[in-house]
Design brief:
The chain has two helices and eleven strands; from the N terminus they run αββαβββββββββ. By secondary structure, it is mainly beta. The chain folds into two domains: 3-34, no CATH class; 38-148, Immunoglobulin-like (Sandwich). The strands form four sheets. It has a five-stranded antiparallel beta sheet, with no helix packed on it. The protein has a two-stranded antiparallel ribbon with strand order 1-2. It has a two-stranded antiparallel ribbon with strand order 5-8. The model is unreliable at 1-39 (pLDDT under 50).
Length: 157
């Protein structure tokens, strides 16, 4: 393969990248994608439903979240979907340090049209080379969703 075909081919005044250059770029991109998923780990641990009245119930999901001290990404995201939501109620997210009863961070998020929600929060900040970490280590996350009361045991008419 000659040097000209390795980098580009000039045809009709337009430069086209060769297949080998494109393949190298795709390989580099595909190797870097897994790096973006290492920042935060959350695992579903428990979901409970408490009836509020005949029409609505409160669904609470508790998660364990770990943000490693080697994290370099500035943002974390908590997202999910509400099955059969009761209209007009936001999702409440509370973040706790382990073994503490008072949340260190609270957020209220409205549902999107498809009943999903997404909350982005700052993990760290870099200002003139100084890194300030807002979250690092283990946390408990509680997600509260108001849903229509499940009707599992309806009597036949």
């Amino acid at each position: 393969m000659n040097v000209v075909s390795k980098y580009s081919i000039q045809r009709n005044g337009k430069t086209r990248k060769s297949l080998s250059t494109a393949c190298i770029f795709v390989m580099m991109l595909s190797m870097s994608v897994p790096l973006f998923d290492d920042a935060v780990f959350a695992e579903s641990t428990k979901t409970t439903v408490t009836e509020l009245d005949d029409e609505t119930s409160l669904e609470m999901t508790t998660l364990s979240m770990n943000i490693p001290e080697t994290n370099t990404l500035p943002w974390g995201t908590i997202k999910g979907k509400v099955n059969d939501p009761s209209q007009g109620y936001p999702v409440i997210i509370q973040i706790f340090k382990p073994d503490e009863d008072v949340p260190i961070h609270v957020a209220q998020i409205n549902l999107k049209g498809d009943h999903s929600f997404e909350y982005k929060f700052r993990l760290l900040s870099i200002d003139e080379g100084n890194i300030t970490r807002f979250f690092e280590g283990d946390y408990n996350v509680k997600i509260f969703k108001v849903i229509n009361t499940p009707r599992d045991n309806l009597d036949s008419i």
